[in-house]
């Protein structure tokens, strides 16, 4: 659903993307408005689905999840039953932070966060025991250069 968003809405969204834990007063000051209109706009944006669930960003490495793998998957299976099983397998694994179906030579790409290479192997073995895949390539991220969920408003 497409929602009409004006410049004030964009400013509010930019502030929320930066730090959603800030007070309504702080956000209102930053966008040059008062508290009640900003609250009403935020409520409207939530109801329209523009603003989703609010979560907290955790430091993966501080919690011991030091390995980030990008997993490229090719499959020769494209039937609905296989896709359902594959989707179920991904959704049941908390290690999978992102999963995308792609156009081109690679069918899927996963972002998998685990403690180490041994933990990745356990993830991989469990995945291929549940669903057949033609080819899997795992790429270990050596360094995260940029990571954001912020949209370029």
UniProtKB/TrEMBL annotation:
InterPro entries: ArsR-like_HTH, AsnC-type_HTH_dom, Dimeric_a/b-barrel, Tscrpt_reg_AsnC-like, Tscrpt_reg_AsnC/Lrp_C, Tscrpt_reg_HTH_AsnC-type_CS, WH-like_DNA-bd_sf, WH_DNA-bd_sf
Top-level division of the source organism's lineage: Bacteria
CDD domains: HTH_ARSR (cd00090)
Domain HTH asnC-type: 5-66
Pfam families membership: AsnC_trans_reg (PF01037), HTH_AsnC-type (PF13404)
GO molecular function: sequence-specific DNA binding
GO biological process: regulation of DNA-templated transcription; response to amino acid
Keyword DNA-binding: yes
The keyword Transcription belongs to this UniProt entry's keyword annotation: yes
Any one cellular-component term (Gene Ontology): cytosol
Record key words, sorted: DNA-binding, Transcription, Transcription regulation
Annotated SMART domains: HTH_ASNC (SM00344)
Protein name: Lrp/AsnC family transcriptional regulator
Organism listed in the record: Thalassococcus profundi
């Amino acid at each position: 659903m497409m929602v009409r968003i004006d410049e004030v809405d964009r400013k509010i969204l930019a502030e929320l993307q930066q730090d959603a834990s800030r007070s309504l007063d702080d956000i209102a000051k930053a966008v040059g408005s008062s508290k009640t209109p900003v609250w009403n706009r935020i409520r409207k944006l939530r109801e329209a689905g523009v603003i989703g669930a609010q979560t907290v960003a955790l430091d993966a490495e501080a919690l011991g999840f030091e390995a980030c793998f990008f997993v490229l998957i090719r499959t020769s299976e494209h039937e609905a039953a296989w896709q359902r099983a594959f989707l179920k397998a991904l959704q049941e694994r908390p290690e999978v932070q992102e999963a995308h179906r792609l156009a081109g030579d690679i069918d899927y790409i996963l972002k998998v966060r685990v403690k180490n290479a041994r933990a990745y192997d356990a993830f991989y073995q469990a995945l291929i025991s549940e669903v057949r895949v033609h080819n899997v390539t795992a790429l270990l991220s050596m360094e995260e250069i940029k990571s954001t969920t912020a949209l370029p408003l």
